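To the structural biology subgroup,

Please find below the input and predicted structure for Nudix hydrolase domain-containing protein, which we are adding to the shared reference set this quarter. The sequence is reproduced verbatim from the submission form. If anyone notices a discrepancy with their own records, reply to this email rather than editing the shared folder directly, so we keep one authoritative version.
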Amino acid sequence: MCHQVAALPWRREDDGSISVLLITSRTNGKWMLPKGWPMKGLSEADSARQEALEEAGVEGRVDAQAVGSYRYSKLFSDGSSTPGQAVIFPLEVTRERKDWKEKGQRQRRWMSPNEAAEAAHEPDLSRFLANLAAGRVTLSQMGQPRAIAL
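Predicted structure (tokenized):
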């Protein structure tokens, strides 16, 4: 099983609700979280933050503590696949770039956790987002656990 890291970009809206940012896959256009391989010299959380910058063009404060994980099928360019698991790190978005590395290869969209759960391609990610929407997942920020009211 391959191990990757994922960022869960989120922000608080004017009405106090939470939105999460999903991006499309480069290969099939399905909705997902920014994710990738852990990077040499970076913690898993910082690797997830870097993936969010490259794939979604967002910056922010990443939590060093993962809030969950999800399983998926990792597809390779040769058409083969292998089971994978991505560890999820919350990223409170403080800046959205107009231009970023993979802008021409992906779309990004802010959604409510319920909308994101319905849009997510991977069933296990969809379940995680549904649990977030239902308040069964608690986001923490910078090591300080706190409930994020939806």
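Summary notes: The CA atoms of residues 24 and 31 lie 5 Å apart. The helical segments are 44-56, 113-119, 123-133.

Regards,
Lab coordination
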